[in-house]
Every structure is written in structure tokens, then in C-alpha cells.
Design brief:
By secondary structure, this protein is an alpha+beta fold. It has 5 helices and 9 strands, in the order αββββββαββαααβ.
Length: 221
């Protein structure tokens, strides 16, 4: 069971597949805050997979889920490709989100990037500008938690990833769950972990940064 607002690496590994299934079934693009009553923005999940790593035989295996989504406006020449990963941070004992974003003028399909038509976004200012443009959002809206640039803690490549530092995650999630009495003692461990991950996604996952990319489901999982 979940204690003190934290899950273990083992609990994360045991239940990330169920959460990923919920994510794929219920991830939605919500454009109610757009400048126009009807937005022409389109949203597609074009890749999703789980990667298991055995970094050290003395510790439990590490797992991350990677999902690639495409956000496009039919009237715009470019779309946004967003890769985001969900993994577990051993030091802070919470899930953590990394993501990278590309401008895509080639309209890549099938999960493959046409390198000739894709440009990585490497600043928060450029990220916000493109996000507003593709979704036709009001430019006075704010994104969610503060994001920084960093290397990925499990993917060792030259990519620049956006990252929410998890130093406040444990305290915030504990306060949320205690205030709303989200977790019940009669819940199974699976139900508790799935509720926990749904709250985390809405607060510190992709839904916390981009409120338009929402996980639309009931916490009665």
C-alpha cells in the first residue's frame, strides 16, 4: 500500500503497464481555452513503448514508458511532435516526467521522424510560443509547473530534454491525497497506485505542464 504519499520503484514497475493503458485510452486534447470557439487542432498518439534497463544488478530494474504524440493545426504549415517519458526517481521516490518537442514541417507519420523536416525546440520561450500557436490559445495563459532543460536520467543520448525537478512532488502529492482523502484502506494496491499516478500526471506529468493534454478519466479505477 502507499504510505506517506510515496510509491516504491517496485510498485511503479508493477503497475506502470496498467497506467499506460489508461493513458492511451483516455488521453485527450481539450481546446476550450482557444481564441476561437472551434479549434482546428488535431491530436494523435503515434508511438508508445516500454523500455526495461538493468543498470545495476544490485538494484531493481529501471523502467520508462515513452509516448510520442503529434499536435497539429490543419491551417498551419508545421505541427509539434512531443516525446514524453514516465519513469521513477530513486532519490526523490516519485515518478518523474521528461519530454522533448520538435517542430515538424514534414508531418511525420507512423512514429518515424523525417529528420530533414524536423527542428528540435530547445528553449522554454520557443516551446510556449509554438504551443500557443498550434492550439490557437490565448497568449495570456500560463503553462503549469516550472520546467528546465536537462539530460535524461535513463536515456543516454545527445538530446535536450525538458524536465520538472521532482523536489516538491512528494510533499505536494501527499497534501493532495490527505486533503481529498483520495486513497481508501479498502482499495487494492493496484487501485491506490493507479489513483496516485493519475494525480501525479495531472499535477507534474504532461497534463500539469500542458493543461490541454488532459487525462480524462474518473479516479474510480
Amino acid at each position: 500500500m502507499i504510505k506517506d504519499g510515496r510509491i516504491t520503484n517496485c510498485q511503479f514497475n508493477d503497475h506502470i503497464d496498467e497506467f499506460n493503458e489508461l493513458l492511451l485510452q483516455n488521453l485527450r486534447l481539450v481546446t476550450s481555452n482557444s481564441n476561437s470557439e472551434i479549434s482546428d487542432a488535431n491530436f494523435d498518439i503515434i508511438n508508445n513503448y516500454k523500455k526495461e534497463l538493468n543498470l545495476n544488478t544490485k538494484i531493481q530494474k529501471k523502467i520508462y514508458m515513452l509516448t510520442r504524440i503529434c499536435i497539429s493545426g490543419f491551417s498551419l504549415p508545421t505541427s509539434l511532435l512531443v516525446d514524453f517519458t514516465i519513469s521513477y526517481d530513486d532519490f526523490y521516490m516519485v515518478p518523474v516526467l521528461y519530454f522533448r518537442v520538435f517542430q515538424d514541417s514534414s508531418r511525420s507519420i507512423g512514429g518515424n521522424i523525417d529528420e530533414a523536416g524536423v527542428t528540435p525546440i530547445t528553449s522554454t520561450e520557443e516551446l510556449i510560443s509554438n504551443y500557443y500557436s498550434v492550439l490557437n490559445l490565448n497568449d495570456d495563459l500560463n503553462l503549469g509547473p516550472t520546467i528546465t532543460l536537462d539530460s535524461h536520467h535513463l536515456i543516454y543520448d545527445s538530446s535536450v530534454w525538458f524536465y520538472i525537478h521532482p523536489c516538491e512532488t512528494l510533499r505536494t502529492l501527499k497534501e493532495f491525497m490527505e486533503a481529498d482523502n483520495i486513497l481508501f484502506t479498502c482499495d487494492s494496491e493496484q487501485a491506490q497506485v493507479l489513483k496516485y499516478l493519475c494525480i501525479w500526471y495531472a499535477t507534474y506529468g504532461l497534463g500539469g505542464i500542458f493543461p490541454s493534454i488532459s487525462l480524462r478519466l474518473s479516479l474510480q479505477v
